[in-house]
Amino acid sequence: MAKTLVIAIDGPAAAGKGTLAKRLAIHYRLHYLDTGLLYRAVGRKAQAAGLDLDNPEEMTPIARDLNFHDIDEPSLRGREAGELASRVAAHSGVRQALNAFQREFAAQPGGALLDGRDIGTVICPDADVKIFVTASAEVRARRRTDELNAKGRTVVYERILEEVRQRDDRDSNRAVSPLKAADDAHLLDTSELSIDGVFRKACSLIDAQISR
Ligand code: CDP
Ligand code: CDP
Questions:
Q1: Cα separation of 168 and 76, whole Å?
Q2: Residue whose CB lies within 8 A of the most ligand 1 atoms, among 9, 10, 17, 19, for a mutation test
Q3: ipTM score here?
Q4: Where does ATP bind (predicted)?
């Protein structure tokens, strides 16, 4: 029987993780989990309950009680939920409460691909392939702005750039599981690459690993 493949994709906001991850999961027939949705769901639930998102004691029970069937909510994908997510994601109790689900997901038969911030470092340190997707903050903000404008929402590039920088800062400087590339991750800078170009590069990294 073929060995089960586990792929870890990490990187900062709007680097193109999700776009790449979805294509790779289809191509390699892997189960796919967008782990940002877990943190987004906790942030949203906490906000709806009127709780203090910066208080770990209030946030940990929300993460423990999260119903994992509810994470595929379209409203979770918006900018506001991303901001809430990065606040609750700084609490170690929240992260611990979400870790077991992610690890079980990664271990299921058939293989898995997960994307987030700490997949290669904490959730799947033994992943077969780790890819850290990056792009400059300016390129990421431009892509996000174009994406939102294409959806009919008028947003200002400068404002989006500020949000991207704030999120980078919070995710990179938190004490627990900060955003950083695993030592054995392949760095994939997408600043100058098309979506197809990113996909092709990632496939060649993965294929090289599989054939070893
Ligand atoms: O998941 P993450 O926040 O890292 O990024 P995404 O939502 O997959 O991608 C952000 C935006 O960049 C989307 O609108 C993509 O279409 C676009 N994009 C990309 O992902 N890769 C490129 N090489 C060029 C554009
Ligand atoms: O798509 P985008 O990169 O904008 O956001 P996301 O992947 O949905 O993540 C939202 C927030 O959740 C991030 O800014 C992180 O603070 C947090 N997160 C995390 O800490 N660990 C993960 N594995 C995934 C997301």
A1: 19
A2: 19
A3: 0.97
A4: 11-19
